[in-house]
Design a protein that fits this description.
Order of helices and strands: EEHEEHEEEEEHHEHEHEEEHHHHHHHHH
Strand content: 15-25%
Shape: globular
CATH architecture of the largest domain: 3-Layer(aba) Sandwich
Largest sheet: 7 strands, mixed
CATH superfamily of the largest domain: Class I glutamine amidotransferase (GATase) domain
Strand order of the largest sheet: 8-5-4-9-10-14-13
CATH class of the largest domain: Alpha Beta
Radius of gyration: 25 Å
Number of domains: 3
Helix content: 40-55%
Number of strands: 14
Length: 356
C-alpha cells in the first residue's frame, strides 16, 4: 500500500509517497529534515565571554541531539572577527576567530554577544562590525543582540524606529544614545522582522532558546530547555529592574527636580507646583524633563515611588496598605495597578520572591 508522509524542512512542508510495509501504518508521520544553517558569532572586543561560549555550546548541543536521532548537523557554527588574530580579555582569556567577516559572503544568523564595561567605550573598537551586520541583514540574515549587544545592533542602524530590549542597568544610556529606538526594557526578549534582542545578563539564554525553536521545532527547544534548565515561560525582566533615573545630562533644573522627587517620594506631587518650583511654565517644564530623563514626569514619579515600595517589600514586615501610604498613594487599587505595571508582579508576589 502506498501512503503519504509529510516532510518538514526549513523551506516548507512537502508530501512524499512511501510504502506502508516500510513504516507500519499510514498515519502521515512527520519527518523533520533541515537545511544546514550557518551561525556566525562575532568575536568582539570587550565581549562577555560567557555569552559567546554559551551560544556556541547551545547550538552545538542541538547538533548533538539531532545526531542522536540519526539526523545530520543543522548548524555550522563559526566565530568571526575583524582579523584572525587572538583577542585577549583582561589578560586572562583569549578569543581565537576561525574566520574574518570579510571572508563571509552570507550567513543565516549573526549573534552579537553581550558587551562589558562602559557601553560607548566598548562599542568603539567594534564599530567596523556595524556596516557588515547591516549588509548581512539586507542579504536575509537574522541578527540577535544578546543583552548589551543591543548597543552594537543599534549602532548598525537596524534598530531605527524599531523596538528592542537590553540589560536594564544600561537602559538610561541606551535611551540617551539611541532615541529613535523604542526600548522596552521590561521584556526578556524582542522579536521583530528578523531582529532579536534580550534583557539583562543570563536572559540571553531565553533568546537562544527562542531562536532554537524558530530554527528547529518545539520538541527540540523543550529538550534544550530541560538540558540547560531554562525557564520556557519567562517573558519579563521587570521584577529584576532597579530604577535609576537618567542623570547624565546637563539640565540642572531637571537634576534638582529629580533629587527632590527621590527625597520626597511619599508626597503627592502636583505638576503645576513642580513647574512653579522650577520657575518655568508647565509646558516648558514637562518638555525639558522628558528630554533630559527620557521619561514623562508621570512615568518618572511612578517609578520612583514603586522603587521605594519594592525596597520596603524586600526588607520590612509592613503591610501592603502601610507601604501604599508610605509612598504617597491613598487608593489600594491604584497602587496595585501601578506596581504591577512597573514590576509585572503583584506586591504580594514580589514580597514572596525577594523578602528573605
Amino acid at each position: 500500500m502506498i501512503c503519504t508522509a509529510k516532510i518538514s524542512t526549513t523551506s516548507g512542508i512537502y508530501e512524499l509517497p512511501f510504502r506502508q510495509s516500510m513504516v507500519g501504518d499510514c498515519d502521515n508521520p512527520i519527518v523533520y529534515l533541515y537545511d544546514m544553517r550557518t551561525i556566525t558569532i562575532l568575536a568582539l572586543h570587550n565581549a562577555s565571554l560567557a555569552s559567546i561560549a554559551d551560544s556556541y555550546t547551545l547550538f552545538s548541543k542541538v547538533n548533538e541531539f539531532l545526531r542522536e536521532t540519526g539526523e545530520t548537523d543543522l548548524f555550522n557554527i563559526q566565530l568571526a572577527g575583524l582579523t584572525r588574530e587572538p583577542i585577549h580579555q583582561n589578560n586572562l582569556f583569549a578569543l581565537f576567530p576561525q574566520i574574518t567577516i570579510s571572508e563571509i559572503d552570507k550567513t543565516d544568523l549573526v549573534i552579537i554577544p553581550a558587551l562589558t564595561g562602559e557601553m560607548m567605550t566598548s562599542n568603539y573598537p567594534n564599530r567596523e562590525f556595524g556596516g557588515w551586520i547591516a549588509s548581512q541583514y539586507r542579504k536575509g540574515a537574522s541578527v540577535a543582540g544578546l543583552s548589551t549587544g543591543a548597543f552594537l545592533l543599534a549602532y548598525s542602524g537596524l534598530l531605527k524606529n524599531k523596538q528592542c530590549t537590553t540589560h536594564w542597568a544600561y537602559s538610561n544610556e541606551f535611551r540617551y544614545f539611541y532615541p529613535l529606538t523604542t526600548l522596552v526594557d521590561d521584556k526578556i526578549i524582542t522579536d521583530q522582522n528578523g531582529l532579536y534582542t534580550s534583557g539583562g545578563s543570563t536572559a540571553y539564554w531565553n533568546l537562544l532558546l527562542h531562536l532554537t525553536e524558530k530554527l528547529t521545532n518545539r520538541n527540540i527547544a523543550i529538550r534544550i530547555a530541560k538540558y540547560f534548565v531554562i525557564d520556557l515561560n519567562k517573558s519579563l525582566q521587570s521584577p529584576f529592574i532597579v530604577f535609576q533615573g537618567l542623570k547624565d545630562h546637563s539640565d540642572q533644573m531637571v537634576l534638582d527636580i529629580q533629587e527632590y522627587l527621590e527625597q520626597h517620594y511619599a508626597d503627592k506631587f502636583n505638576v503645576d507646583e513642580l513647574a512653579a518650583r522650577s520657575n518655568c511654565s508647565r509646558r516648558t517644564f514637562e518638555r525639558r524633563f522628558s528630554k533630559a530623563t527620557r521619561h514623562t514626569l508621570t512615568e518618572y514619579i511612578q517609578k520612583v515611588k514603586m522603587e521605594a515600595a519594592k525596597k520596603q517589600l524586600e526588607s520590612s514586615n509592613s503591610s501592603v496598605n502601610e507601604i501604599m501610604l508610605d509612598t504617597g498613594y491613598a487608593d489600594i487599587h491604584s497602587f496595585r495597578k501601578v506596581f504591577r505595571k512597573v514590576t509585572g508582579m503583584t506586591p504580594a508576589d514580589y514580597r514572596k520572591r525577594y523578602n528573605s
